[in-house]
Amino acid sequence: MIAYIQGEVSEITDQAVILDVNGLGYEVICPNPFRFQADVGQKQKIYTYHYVREDAQILYGFQNQDEKSLFSKILNVSGIGPKGALAVLATTSVQDFVVAIEQEDEKFLTSFPGVGKKTARQMILDLKGKLPFDYPEDNLFIENKSTAKDNQALLEAVEALRALGYSDREINQIKPALAKEQSDTADTYIRKGLSLLMK
Known about the structure:
Layout: E1 4-12, E2 16-21, E3 24-29, E4 43-53, E5 56-62, H1 65-75, H2 82-91, H3 94-102, H4 106-109, H5 117-127, H6 148-163, H7 168-179, H8 186-197
Parallel strand pairs: 3-5
Antiparallel strand pairs: 1-2, 1-4, 2-3, 4-5
Domain Helix-hairpin-helix DNA-binding motif class: 72-91, 107-126
Family: Belongs to the RuvA family.
GO molecular function, one term: four-way junction helicase activity
């Protein structure tokens, strides 16, 4: 098993990061390769999951161990393959997903590409109480009092902030403040997010 690869980020594609390690280029499929855009030409460590099947060997890559661990856990859910697990991690953060599972938030889970009610239910059955992550309640993106509509608006706002070039680390720092807005429109969260990020 290849635990991680450390090398120079030589290229970013729609699906992968190409890491140059002593002249050997590793193609690493990532949830959101453009997170590494600022690292092109620089040395970077990417945590990897080596997926092996009869007709292919694929390296999936992640920014940290938590993302990699969650990817492997989601793969254990009946009916979900690597593409589905990757889509989840491309759309949300580890802590948001954990809370959705623990709170059995099917509405949140079905917002992921390719996840219907049946698959969301299966995720909850297979993963609830089994995810090895511990996040303080006051730092969680989804709160018990949040509505499904609020969650969707927050998700849309987070994606918009990512598209504007803000990193997950920067966005995660302001999520608790965003969640307190309790708005049902993404525009409100985006405006609040920008004001916090530009401070």
